[in-house]
Structure formats: C-alpha cells, structure tokens
Amino acid sequence: MHRIPDWDTLDTAARTRRREHARPQATALDPILNAFAQIDATPFPRSAAGPLDGLPYAAKDLFQTLTHRPGGGFAEDVDLEVIGTSDLLERLHANGGDLIGFTNMTELAYEPSGFNATRGRVKNPWNLDYISGGSSSGSAAAVASGAVVAALGSDTGGSVRIPAHACGITAWKPTLGAVSARGTMPLAPTLDTIGLLARSAADMLLLARIMAELPSSHPVTRAVLLNDIVAQSDPPIRRGVADAAAVLAGAGIAIEQRPALAAIEAIDRHAMIVMQGESARAHRARIDDAAIAPVLRRRLAKGLEIADATLTENVAARQRLVHDFEEQVLAGNDVAVLPVMAILTPSAAECDPASERFSPRTLYALSRFTRFVNMLGFPAIALPAGFDDRGLPIGAQIVGRAGCDLALFELVRHVQSKTDWHARIPTAIAHLVPEPELQS
Q: Does residue 60 have an active-site annotation?
C-alpha cells in the first residue's frame, strides 16, 4: 500500500523534492479538486531555512498579509474588514515554512459541508461525488492529496475536524486562545479558533510548536468513551471508533464508558445561540448584499433575532458548562473519545440547497458533535479511524481539558504509530501523486 511519508522522516534530498513538487502538484490537482483560491507561483524568499526547512504548507483564505487580502470564500472582492496582518503566517515564514497558497473555503466559513455557491465546492479526493467537509475544505483536500504537508484552517464549530473526517487526515482544534487569530476574518469570536490539518500528528506537531507556546501537561492515562453517541452512529463509524479505543487500551489507557448525549446537547444549545448571534453581528453588512447567496444571507439574518441580552447570557454560561462537563462527563478521566460525525460522509447533492436530494437534517448532523467543543474552549484532535464500506475515510475525535494540547498530540502520535489509517493516498487523485514521494 502506497503512503505519503511524514516530513520528519525525509532526508534532505527527499525534502527538496517535496518542496519542488508542491507548486506543480497543487496546480495539477486544482482543476480536479478546486482546493486553492490562489497558488503562489514562486516561494517567498527565506533568509534562513529554520526548523521547518522549507516545509510546504497552505492557509485558508481568511488570513491577511501585507500582500494578500483574504477572499473569505467569495468569488468577488468583498471587504471583510479584517484588522491587521497575520502574525501567525509571519512566524511560520520566519521559521522556514513555504506558503504554497491560500485555500478555498465556504463563504464566511459558515457552512459545514464544503458547499460554496460562488466559487464552487471543493471536491473530496477520495470520491469526487462526496463532500470534502467545511468550512476548511480546501485546506483538507490540499493536505489529503499531498499538495502540501500541512494547512491552516479555522474551527468555529468543527471546521477543521469535519473536513479531516471526510478527507482522511488529522486535524487539531487548539485550546481557545492558544493560537493567535490576529489578521484573520472572524465568524463568532467566542468560538473561533485557528486550527491545523496534516496527514499525521507528527507532521502537525512540527508547526504547532511554532504556532503556540503550548504548556506541558501530564500524559493521558484515562479516557472515557461516550457510548451513547457511539451507539447511535452508523455501523462503520461505530466500528472505527471502537477500533481507535482498542488501540488506546492496548497502549495502557484505562477506558471507561459513559453516556454524554444529554450533556452535549445542552452545551450545543448555547453554542448555536452564540454562533448565530455573533456571526450576524460580525457580518451584518453582508445581510443586505445582493451579491451574497440568499441561503447565507438568511442564515446570517436569523442571528439578528437573538437579543443582545440573550447572547450575553449564553456567552457567560461557558464557565458553568466547563465545570459541569468536567465533573459529569470526564469525571476524573483525561480525555473523551467520540466520533467526529455520527453519520457517513454524505454525497455533495445532499448538501446542495439547489438539489432535489438536499437534506437540512444531514447538514445539521455534520457538526452535531463538534460544536460543543468550541463552546467549552477545549482542545481536540480528529484522526483517521478506518474506512466505511464505500472506501471513504472515518474519523474519531479525542477531546481534552483546556491546555492539554501536547498530551493529545503525544497520544494521537502513539495511535498512528500502531495503525495504518493515516497518510494513505486518496483513490480519486492517486494517479497524480508523484511516484518518488511515495513509500510502501
């Protein structure tokens, strides 16, 4: 089985090949996947190699630099009123990162499937007829296809974890505030986090240590499997999460099973009010913009129905929600294990409002078990956990307390050292991946 090796396993010659192939590969893949909003033709000069040593990466098109104004998922120039420039991109550049380009996303990062009415959807590199997940769609497709080693995204309610599930890669939603969001387009500031996608936790960790000053935390020794959520998931997802839990148990992690559906649904009610209320206020100018898709305008307008006092009350509920979740769900355990999505990755038609097969219920289900993490401000890592009967990837997520990001990385890195679910070549684009970059 061919795989794309981790960056830190490559020698100097192999890294040079990956770097040289990145732009041509991104250019060759883009007519198929629609992953990039912009591909930079030549690398920005680097004064020194730095610890990333030219690692090719991409950034979701919501980051502002001195030379790039973010598109925010729109085909035409829209003033998103982004303040300042991204210090995160500056830091990655200073440490030897090679920014290949900016990736396509759903408009305003406010849609979980990857549907985009103006720029077209990003296609899933495993099967072009299925969703890539949103809103960090292009970042996920670019990583999964091997065009870049890693890609920055944002996560307000699951926007790096859902695409990671759909595209078979690994994603990090950091502890709230751990990674700078300066110079980025907001959606709902109380929930917004800047996240990262890569094929493996090992590749992500190379960038994560530069992106944030992550505190040390004790290793994970106890995990709770959220069994009622797993039980109501589609059978292939139940199998995948069970397999991931078995690997954890094999590593000596004590696994407890506990129900959490009622607790998560209660948190989610707050998350939905905050997301709708803050996004409407952040992008009020778009509601009456005729150039914006009507579905998105209606979604924004709904948030203005939420009174300021109600929004403030729900934002203020975070501390109580964190306390209750730690006491009632984690209950002495270090992490919770659950699916990213309880449903199988749907077809693109099921998430297209213009299609006869469109299902609002399916669209809602994509982020049903991811939004609560943002409301709590907790870190989470989504990781590949097998494949369904159609050959599409399945993802699990591991959620920990605030500040335990490094412990999550170490745990997932161990899981991936014992499994072969990650770094596989997606079937729909396998013929375009250069042979010298593969390993068996």
A: yes
CA angle at 334 for the pair 333 and 338, rounded to the nearest 5°: 85
Show the tokens assigned to 104.
């396509």
Nearest CA-CA partner of 350 in 133, 125, 162, 155: 133
Copy the structure tokens of residue 188: 């709902």
Binned at pLDDT 50, 70 and 90, residue 415 comes out as very high
State the amino acid at position 11 in one-letter form.
Answer: D
Helix or strand holding residue 39 (H, E) = strand 36-39
DSSP, collapsed to helix, strand or coil, labels residue 424 as strand
What DSSP character marks residue 5? P
CB 122 within 8 A of CB 36: no
**pLDDT tens digits for range 194-226:** 999 999 999 999 999 999 999 999 999 999 999
Exactly one of 86, 139, 159, 200 is catalytic; name it: 159
d(CA 422, CA 317): 37
- DSSP-based three-state secondary structure for 226: strand
Catalytic annotation, pick one of 86, 113, 132, 135: 135
What pTM does this model have? 0.97
Exactly one of 60, 136, 139, 154 is catalytic; which is it?
60
| Both structure tokens of 326 | 């730690």
